[in-house]
Design goal:
With 400 residues, this protein is α/β, with parallel strands linked by helices. 42% of the residues lie in helices and 15% in strands. It has three domains: 232 residues, Rossmann fold (3-Layer(aba) Sandwich), CATH 3.40.50.150; 66 residues; 80 residues, Arc Repressor Mutant, subunit A (Orthogonal Bundle), CATH 1.10.10. Strands 3-2-1-4-5-7-6 form a seven-stranded mixed sheet, with helices on both faces. The N and C termini lie far apart (57 Å). This is Methyltransferase domain-containing protein. Keywords: Methyltransferase, Transferase. GO terms for molecular function: methyltransferase activity.
């Protein structure tokens, strides 16, 4: 057995033992939304505009127990979805999850490695690969395999671990492995050892403190604890190695899906002289500076890549924005109300003109009602329309 096969077998055994994520099954659609898994929302975030079609193909690459797959199905009712994973046991949970919530007829599950994704027919408009690449023995090979399956104009959504925000996890992983000795690979034993270590360490121990303040809410379940502390394969990244991975994909980097974290103003706004010194830095250098200054925040990187050609629009020209066709954003909770949650579950308080504008957006999107028409009806200023757009409360389509 090759080293790669041995790692794949070990990873599959972990998830056969502890199917992950361990979210409970339900006969109802999953609650809420993750906008990164909503094709229209993700596409506008990346390009500035609503996609021209929603009858797309989606691949959930490393779907695990189907938590993300189920969201992809419910949030994209016109899409055909394929889910792949190494673990047969976990795939069985994913199948049951989607069966119970009524969307199993639109998904195909297959036991398959990322490295063998070329065995799947056709290409995909959206590939979701969350928490998977860093658990392969060769992430470069993995991301290159996925890149080959992205359709022209399609998106690849990636989530990988960051080394600076997971320092304590790496230490505990090594400590558990040392204490397990020859029993490494017995994941139930690993969980027992890890929990015993945390119970024995002094309350003031930094590993204990970090676990309590950052991870304990999820790690009360053995599935989460095992995934974090006894995983047989993990490669963590920093900004330099991350962009090496991205460049190896051959795709275009569109940006992080949590841009607020990657704003230097968040950290240095009180020091204009330092902000001025940072001005000449490249984006990559600025990202590195941010993770150096706030390492505890950066436990992972989540970002979008794309295969050209991909159209972009920034709506900076007033005439272009006025002629756009607006719709209410699909990832907005609490409407109709003066207080709603936006795509990131942030509270947004709407003025009366904003409410009137958004109400008009939903009346008949096929009628060709433009931003200009709704501004005239509602009294909303163009600057306020841009504010709604910035908060991801609108989808915009250019005039045909």
């Amino acid at each position: 057995m090759s080293n790669a096969q041995a790692v794949s077998t070990a990873v599959a055994k972990l998830y056969d033992t502890y199917p992950f994520p361990p979210d409970p099954l339900s006969d109802q659609p999953p609650p809420g939304y993750n906008w990164r898994w909503h094709w229209q929302a993700a596409y506008q975030f990346c390009t500035g505009q609503k996609p021209s079609r929603s009858d797309i193909r989606i691949l959930d690459a490393g779907c695990g127990s189907g938590v993300g797959t189920e969201y992809l199905l419910h949030l994209n009712p016109e899409a055909e979805v394929v889910g792949i994973d190494l673990s047969a046991g976990t795939l069985a949970v994913a199948q049951e999850r989607c069966q119970r919530s009524g969307v199993a007829h639109r998904v195909t599950f297959q036991q398959l490695s990322l490295f063998d994704v070329d065995q799947l027919p056709g290409e995909f408009n959206l590939i979701n690969c969350v928490g998977v690449l860093h658990h392969t023995i060769d992430p470069v090979r993995g991301i290159q395999a996925l890149a080959q399956k992205v359709a022209p104009g399609g998106l690849l959504h990636i989530f990988v671990y960051g080394e600076l925000g997971r320092w304590e996890i790496k230490l505990m992983q090594e400590a558990i492995a040392l204490l397990q000795g020859e029993r490494q690979g017995d994941y139930q034993d690993g969980v027992q050892v890890g929990r015993a270590v945390f119970a024995a360490l002094p309350e003031s121990n930094p590993l204990v403190q970090r676990e309590k303040t950052r991870w304990s809410l999820e790690n009360h379940r053995d599935e989460c604890f095992a995934d974090m502390y006894v995983h047989p394969q993990e490669i963590d990244y920093n900004m330099e190695t991350l962009f090496d991975l991205i460049e190896a994909s051959g795709l275009d980097f569109l940006g992080f899906s949590n841009p607020q974290v990657w704003s230097l103003e968040r950290l240095l706004a009180k020091a204009p002289d330092l902000m001025a010194r940072a001005q000449p830095l490249s984006d990559r250098q600025r990202y590195r500076l941010i993770e150096l200054l706030d390492p505890g925040m950066i436990s992972h990187y989540e970002f979008f890549l794309a295969k050209p050609p991909l159209p972009f629009i920034d709506w900076s020209e007033d005439s272009t924005l006025l002629a756009a066709i607006p719709e209410r954003h699909p990832c907005m909770d609490g409407w109709p109300s003066a207080t709603v949650f936006n795509y990131n579950y942030e509270v947004v308080k709407l003025s009366e003109p904003e409410q009137a504008f958004l109400q008009g957006c939903g009346e008949n999107p096929e009628a060709g009602v433009t931003v200009a028409m709704l501004c005239q009806r509602s009294g909303l200023l163009l600057a306020e329309v841009r504010s709604l757009l910035k908060q991801q409360l609108l989808l915009l389509s250019p005039q045909a």
